[in-house]
Amino acid sequence: MYRALPLALLTATLVGCASDAPQLETERSYQVEWIGESPLIDRSHLTVTFAADGRAHGHAGCNHWFAGYTLKDDAVRFETPGSTRKMCAPSLMEQEQRFLAALEEVQRWDFNDIGQLQLWPATGKPIRLWPE
Questions:
Q1: What's the superkingdom here (predicted)?
Q2: 35 contact partners, CB below 8 Å, separation of at least 6
């Protein structure tokens, strides 16, 4: 009996630590700050919201976007995004296309040391986001 007590305490501690790990929240919006190597154009607004039904959506800078996604542990994948078709300044349209293309390359997620959500492609730098 007494030998089992330390093992039970260790197990409870490890389970407690695992639940304290940051979690990717559904129904929460995140604001994009960087796409790979590039910061966003000043005053542009890009967002990602992970809906509980497996659909993601947000604002891509000019248009609204939407895509299915799958999430398992630290793996996340987006289907090919769709969007509305409004035209904006060429620089915003280029940034929007880079963002939507980057979403298709995402394979995993994590949080960095300062609390930013990072969506990582197979190679290269992540899309970095802040919770709104």
A1: Bacteria
A2: 46, 95, 98, 99, 102, 127
